[in-house]
Design brief:
It is built from four helices and two strands, in the order ααββαα. With 109 residues, it is mainly α. A two-stranded antiparallel sheet has the order 1-2. β1 and β2 form a beta hairpin. The longest helix is centred in the C-terminal third of the chain and has 21 residues. It is elongated and about 45 Å long. The structure holds zinc ion. The site of zinc ion has 7 residues, from α3.
């Protein structure tokens, strides 16, 4: 079974920041390949990405608003850059918390 150590979770969440932001604004995710040791873990990471990406952006009339600080409207590109510049660590923490929750779920199975 895949047992994640805390530092692994930290590394993984760091790598997932850009992926989450891209998914949030609807950009294509390139070159993202998860070296998962199990399909249940892979699925769980996908869920963490999905959950986090839905919580950082609001789209109203095709314009993007930041859910973390309320700023906007932004274009797709502007939203991407705002999140990357202003909220990198908040997003990382959000993903890390999600992963920790997943980790405990997996390990208790
Ligand atoms: Zn913001």
């Amino acid at each position: 079974m895949s047992k994640l150590a805390i530092h692994d979770t930290d590394i993984l969440s760091e790598k997932l920041i850009d992926v989450v932001i891209r998914v949030a604004v609807g950009f294509k995710v390139r070159n993202f390949k998860l070296k998962a040791t199990s399909s249940s873990f892979e699925e769980a990471v996908s869920k963490a990405i999905e959950y986090s990406s839905k919580h950082i952006v609001r789209v109203i009339n095709k314009q993007f608003y930041c859910n973390l600080c309320g700023k906007g409207p932004y274009t797709r590109k502007g939203m991407y850059l705002h999140l990357l510049r202003m909220h990198k660590y908040e997003i990382k923490n959000m993903v890390r918390e999600e992963l920790k929750e997943i980790e405990s779920t997996i390990n208790s199975n």
